[in-house]
Write the structure tokens for this entry.
Amino acid sequence: MTLANSPPLIKGGLVVLAPGGGPVRRTIALQYNPETLSRSYQVQGVGGDGGGERAQPFRLKGPAIETFKLEAEIDAADQLEFPGDHPQVVAHGIAPQLAILETLVNPSVDEMLQVAARSEGGTLEILPPEAPLVLFVWGKDRVVPVRVTDFSITEEAFDPALNPLRAKVSLGLRAMSTDDLGFRHKGGTMFISHLRTREALAGKAGGATLAALGVGNLP
């Protein structure tokens, strides 16, 4: 039973925009929010290692490379309790939901055929088309342009026609920064907004005193 005054459940997910940050093509909401979200940072800095005649002060030359790792579950059990309301699940299981995620790591068939046609037409240099801009959304304070770095699916249950009914999905995401996209790209401006949000959150944290660290004065 859901209490009348309980807050609505916000789901994490992905938003797929047209290349360059155009209109929204698709919104992917995770069926169940993962219990954990792992984040790591690769610091982009120079100096501070004493590699020459004298050590140089450490300098941050750009934003850290932020990566995310999450595991999500997709299950058809709830929908199959009411098969008349979910004919697609009865016919295909969760295969459509998995296929949507697979589009994040595959170019479309039309794009592949266009590249092949240009190659056969004698075009010397063929650049693949720019991929859609993907945003990782984890609440209103975390909207980050990303690209999928690794993706795996473990299918765990099937119907008699071998359609998957339950699966675990592992997603690895890398934040796309201004180093990747530039400052004028839509994704670049979204990354700057992401950093500003993190800075604003940091400003809301209370600061400790030197006494809390057992130090009266700094040398």
